[in-house]
Amino acid sequence: MRVVLCDDNRLLCEALADVLRSRGHDVVAIAVTATAGVAAVAAQRPDTCVLDLRFPGNPDGISAAKSIKDQFPETRILILSGAGENTAWSQAIQIGVEGFLRKDQNVAQIADALDVIADGGAVFDPTLSRRPGTPATEPRHDTRELLTPREEEVLRRIVAGQTTQQMAAEMHVATSTLRSYIKNVLAKLGAHSRLQAAAIGSRRPSRRPARSARQDPPFLPAPCEYSPSDV
């Protein structure tokens, strides 16, 4: 796996880079601004990119993630965030990032998440979708509107009580791919189990809101310097 790390905390990047290299991965660049991170992805075309959500000044991690997904959709993205980032969590899912985790986890946990993402999975921390003051046990039902058509189908099958193997066979996907869909459904619903997801799904009709065209122009990186990790 070829990785670009982008965080204004250089020490965190270096620590994570050490763990990833020890697992046989190639950290091809480290950037300390969102603009430099987009430039590094453009230059290196990595398999995955780790983006901090907040940077001093503009742009932020969401803008950078949108730019990367617009230009290089094959690059899988993990965003690191503080707690209670409800709006950013929803925006990240809409953009199509593959992961959204708390930044206070240790570097080994972040590396584990990257391994899952590199294998085609998705890793979302549902605690980051809660508004301040929302109890940890209260599922975020409103994120249902963010389910993709494929995820809606998975949820319907969960409600129907199908097993992972049954769903994979009938949807003509690999079992590992189906498990990724299930993880996304649980994360977006804020559910901790299939049983809880089934309860949410059985109480709410399927809905897919119309998406308006993007009004903001894509973020285009200005010329900048980033530091390839082998320098």
Structural class: alpha/beta
Return the string of H and E elements.
Answer: EHEHEHEHEHEHHHHE
The coarse silhouette is: globular
Q: Mean pLDDT across all residues, rounded? A: 78
Number of helices: 9
Radius of gyration, in Å, reads 18 Å
Query: What share of the residues lie within helices?
Result: 40-55%
Strand tally, please? 7
CATH topology assignment of the largest domain? Rossmann fold
Strand order of the largest sheet: 6-5-4-3-1-2-7
User: What's the CATH architecture of the largest domain?
Assistant: 3-Layer(aba) Sandwich
In angstroms, what separates the terminal alpha carbons? 19 Å
Largest sheet: 7 strands, mixed
CATH superfamily annotation of the largest domain? Response regulator
In terms of DSSP E residues, the strand content is: 5-15%
Low-confidence stretches: 131-144, 207-226
The domain count comes to 2
CATH class of the largest domain: Alpha Beta
Give an overview in words.
- The chain has 231 residues and is α/β, with parallel strands linked by helices.
- The chain folds into two domains: 2-131, Rossmann fold, CATH 3.40.50.2300; 141-203, Arc Repressor Mutant, subunit A (Orthogonal Bundle), CATH 1.10.10.10.
- Helices cover 44% and strands 13% of the residues.
- It contains nine helices and seven strands; from the N terminus they run βαβαβαβαβαβααααβ.
- It has helices at 10-22, 34-44, 61-71, 86-95, 107-118, 149-159, 164-171, 175-189, 194-203; strands spanning 2-6, 26-31, 48-52, 76-81, 99-102, 123-124, 227-228.
- The protein has a seven-stranded mixed beta sheet, with helices on both faces.
- Strand 5 (99-102), helix 5 and strand 6 (123-124) form a beta-alpha-beta unit.
- Helix 6 (149-159) packs across helix 9 (194-203).
- The radius of gyration is 18 Å and the shape is globular.
- The two termini are 19 Å apart.
